[in-house]
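SAMPLE LOG
Freezer: B-3
Tube label: C17
Construct: single chain, 307 aa
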Amino acid sequence: MPNTSDHERSVYINQMLARPCSQAVGLLAGWLQDRFSGCAILLYGSGNSVLSQANPSEILFDFYVIVPSYRKAYGSRLIAFLNYAIPPNVFYLEEQFGDKKLRAKYAVLSIAHFEKLVSKTTFHSYFWARFAQPSVIVAAPDDMRERLEQCVETAVDTFVRRAAPLAGPDASLGQIWRQGLSHSYKAELRAEQPGRVDDLLESYGDWPNQVTRLKGSSQVGRAWQGRLAWRLRALQGAFLSVIRLLKGTVTFQGGVDYIAWKISRHAGFTLPVKNWERRFPILGAPFLGARYYRLKRQLAARGNHSG
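STRUCTURE (predicted):
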C-alpha cells in the first residue's frame, strides 16, 4: 500500500495536472476559452495520453469546459437547464490549423456542479471514475485551479472507496483499480476491447500507487453491498445512456461532421455532408448513411476492377 503523505499526494496530483500539452491542445483550449468566458479547460481521455502526438489531425481530443455558471455560459435557458438536469452537455469543435484540421469533443459543467458530481453524494460513476484517472488542466483562472485540483482528489477517493469492495480486503491497488475501471465501463454500456483496462493502467504508470488512500475498513465496506451498488449503477447507466443520446440531438452541435469524420477515417474515403443535414441531423442521418454505403460500394467496385 502507498506510504506517501497526504501532502505528497497533493503535490503529485498537482504536478500531473500541470503537465505541458501540445500546440494543438493549446490552440483548441484557446478557442474554447473564447467561447466560454472565465472557464477552465481540462483534457482527458485518449488525447491525454498522446500530448506530443506528431499528427494532431488524427486525434479527437476530449475536453471538459468548466464554467463559472450555466446561466453565464449559455444564452438559452433550455440548454442551461439540460446541462444541469442531465449532465454534461456535449459539443463538437472543428478548427483549421495550417493545412490540418483539429477536432475536439467537449463537455460543459459548472464548477459547483463538477464538485458535486465527483463527490460521494453522486451515486453513478460517470464523473468520479473519469476524473480519478489522469487528466491535465490546460488552462484555468487562478480562483478555479485550486478547486479543480481538489475535485480530482475527491474523485480519486470516491472511486477507490467504491471500487475496493469489488476486489476484496486483501486486494492489491492494481486489483482495486482494475475492478473499478471494468465496472465503470459496464455502468456506461461502454464496449471496450479485452485487455483495455490493463493497457490503461500500464499507461498510467505510478498514478494508482501515488494517489490511492484506503483509510480503514469503513471505506472498504461489505462486498455484497458494493457489488449490489455496481449492479444498480449498470441499470442506471443504461437509462442515462438513452437519455443522453436523445438530449444530444439538441445539444451536440456539429455532431454530423464528427460522425462523418469518424466514418471517413476508418473507411478510407471522404464522406461529404450537406448543409441541410447539419441543420436537421435526425432527418439527414438516413441520407448520410445511404451516401456512405454508395461510396463504399463504388470504392469496392474500383478495387475489384483494378484487381
